[in-house]
Amino acid sequence: MHVDKVHMQASGLPFLSFRRCAQLGISRLGSMPRFMGARCTFVSQQHVRHKVRASALSSLQDDTTKFVDFVVIGSGVAGLRYALEVSKHGSVAIITKAEPHESNTNYAQGGVSAVLCPSDSVESHMKDTIVAGAYLCDEETVRIVCTEGPERVKELIAMGASFDHGEDGRLHLAREGGHSHNRIVHSADMTGREIERALLQAVDNDDNISLFGHHFAIDLLTCQKNGEIYCYGVDSIDIETQKVVRFISKVTLLASGGAGHIYPTTTNPPVATGDGIAMCHRAQAVISNMEFVQFHPTALSDEGLPIKPTTKRENAFLITEAVRGDGGILYNQSMERFMPLYDDRAELAPRDVVARSIDDQLKKRGESYVLLDISHRPRDKVLAHFPNIAAECLRHGLDITRQPIPVVPAAHYMCGGVRAGLQGETNVKGLYVAGEVACTGLHGANRLASNSLLEALVFARRAVQPSIDHMVDAADDADAGAAPLAARWARPTLPSAAALGGGGGGALSEIVARTRRTRAELQAVMWEFVGIVRSTARLKQAEWRIGDMEAEWEEFLFRRGWAPTMVGVEACEMRNLFCCAKLVVKSALARRESRGLHFTEDFPYLEESGRKPTVIFPDAVQELTWSSKPLQRQLQCK
User: Fold this and answer.
1) Closest by alpha carbon to 320, among 174, 460, 463, 430?
2) Which of these, 250, 272, 251, lies nearest to 261 by C-alpha position?
């Protein structure tokens, strides 16, 4: 196949190489077979206590080095579902950044899309997915997900997940924007929370799984052998004990979610700082389609609430797509319906269309939010379908059965990520990805509503058998050389007063304060220059400002005594945010057309020649900043 290779001069970086791959004739890399480029305020959640089980970690070396067969990074639907399958074949350690339930899955309101109605079809689901994805989706991936999806949903039900049923006793299937049929399985407007509950309960009952909460993943541990890169686990910070803990594994699954916090307003929980994408980029994994950042069109606008929240939210409160699917109508503040002016599908248009339409209304009218009205629907049905949203709004003086909801777009989902094959494999041996961190080719240029949980379920399951095969193949080598290999990587260090010049906690406090300011500045630049509507000039401005900002922040750290091998949660998150922001900007500059979520004023039309994924290959990346280099040098393995 023909590969068009484009070199882009990068701020502070010698070169970044983008190769465009044809949509259906994707190039082969290594051994990869094929590539494509809420809180509820009134329902108490029973948090399951998780503890490290000695039986599951029988080969535990010490408190700071742990040996397992499988390490899973992330405790959302993808990570938990995968862990429950591979635990039948070996020991599993799940490491998660905060509490186990704190994931994007837990905040997913809408549901899981799947063909479960006799009048629906796999072909119809495929068509809706491809149309929403602006014809950039990989057709084989789409077919696999739409075909295998119903079985994955049935497995969840068998595991104890409870979904809403209609009066006829059958599953109640909702409809959301971009879908031609009712196919959304849901649990009121708290579907993700219910799935997470069921999976965490199953994990708690599995003696072969150990769950390590409050462990922040720093960098993957890799070595090179016979010209290929192998992953042997990950270094992490135990946030509670302030120790570096090393996990050595035969197989690593990365299911760490997205990078919503590169923007100032996002529906993602605070843990979504792009850690997985950044770690994989530093480990020389292939990255794809990072320009396609989905802004959910309807996040709750606190400014429009009768009673304003007393403190700023860490993440925006999502108003699910299902509200529009259930008949919700969008108005500007003069109560003029505007969506029919932009698209014949009106409120049921895909998210990218609705978000751009709202953005246009806000800019033309100088307003900060629009209104989403569901009050014309029967009160009992509104409260039954959207109890979480109703309760949250009522807390702030708004009754959604009588008044319209103030909404505004917010960063919501990364359609790009670590490039994955049809079984979740990457170009790094022993490293698999699933969920939002992965770019499987399903979403193309824009994700269809409720396809994300479906994709996570399907690819978590598809990654199981190749992971087991890799574990078996690696068993002899890992058992013989795991301990010496673990010792060969230098350990990251935590900052101390002595290491930072003996100035007590003053230097560290200054570093934390500067890091927080820098984070806010980065988010502001991303929103202003790399938001819903873009231009080449604004993207180049963002590239230049981010490069300067990163250089100034790193210089400040190192002047205060910070060493390149030092780690801290806020500093490492900042490092990852810089890495992901640069990947988004570079990918956006490389796409010289408007497609799906990427809209640029300089190239406002679709180009047939542009119907290819944007791919960042590691062999051309020569970045010199701290955020772009792994803390550990890559070892040469025998």
Assistant:
1) 174
2) 272
Alpha-carbon distances, residue 92 vs 57, 75, 209, 472, 634 (angstroms):
8, 12, 5, 15, 25
The sign of the torsion formed by the CA atoms of 553, 618, 622, 249 equals positive
- Separation of alpha carbons 303 and 312, rounded Å: 11
Q: What are phi and psi of 40, to 5 degrees?
A: -100, 125
Mean per-residue pLDDT for 117-141? 96
Cross-strand bridge partners of residue 595: 598
The mean per-residue pLDDT over the stretch 255-264 comes to 96
Tokens of 318: 């999502």
> How far apart, in Å, are the Cα atoms of 584 and each of 94, 136, 262, 540, 603?
28, 17, 10, 12, 17
CB count, 10 Å around CB of 338?
Answer: 20
491/563 Cα distance (integer angstroms): 13
Q: Which two tokens stand for residue 125?
A: 């689901």
Within a 10 A sphere around the Cβ of 319, how many other Cβ atoms?
31
Specify which residues 511 forms β-bridges with: none
Q: What is the reported pLDDT for 102?
A: 63
- Say which of 351, 356, 545, 575 is annotated catalytic: 351
**Which sign does the torsion angle of CA 622, 624, 627, 632 carry?**
positive
From start to end of 53-147, where are the E strands?
A: 65-73, 92-95, 112-113
Residue 24 has a pLDDT of 27
Q: How far is CA 452 from CA 294, 315, 618, in A?
A: 12, 19, 27
- Model confidence pLDDT, tens digit, residues 93-106: 999 998 766 665 65
Average pLDDT over residues 555-580: 94
User: Among candidates 287, 280, 288, which has minimal Cα distance to 222?
Assistant: 280
Please answer whether residues 106 and 190 qualify as being in contact, where contact means their C-beta atoms are separated by less than 8 angstroms: no
Quote the pTM value: 0.87
E-only strand ranges, 226-308: 228-238, 243-254, 287-288, 293-300
Tokens of 408: 């505004």
Please report which confidence band the pLDDT of residue 618 belongs to, taking 50, 70 and 90 as the band edges.
confident
**Taking the chain, what is the end-to-end CA distance rounded to the nearest angstrom?**
34
Provide CB contacts within 8 A for 497, sequence distance 6+: 503, 504, 505, 507, 508
Rounded to 5 degrees, φ, ψ at 555 are -60, -40
DSSP-derived letter for residue 296 is: E
Q: Which two tokens stand for residue 383?
A: 């409260």
State the Rg of the chain over Cα: 23
Query: For the segment 321-334, what is each residue's pLDDT rounded down to a tens digit?
Result: 889 989 999 999 99
Reported in sequence order, the residue ranges of 353-462 that DSSP labels E, i.e. its strands, are 370-373, 405-414, 417-419, 431-433, 438-439
Instruction: Write out the two tokens for 431.
Output: 């490293």
Strands 370-373 and 417-419: unpaired
- Provide the 3-class DSSP secondary structure of residue 16: strand
Give yes or no: 351 in active site. yes
pLDDT > 50? residue 40: no
Q: Where are the alpha helices (DSSP H) in 530-632?
A: 536-559, 569-590
Report how far apart, in Å, the C-alpha atoms of 52 and of each of 61, 77, 87, 214 are: 14, 20, 14, 13
Dist. CA 168–CA 384, nearest whole Å: 16
Q: Is 357 helix (H, G, I), strand (E, B) or coil?
A: helix
Average pLDDT rounded to a whole number, residues 203-230: 94
The three state secondary structure string of 55-68 is CCCCCCCECCEEEE
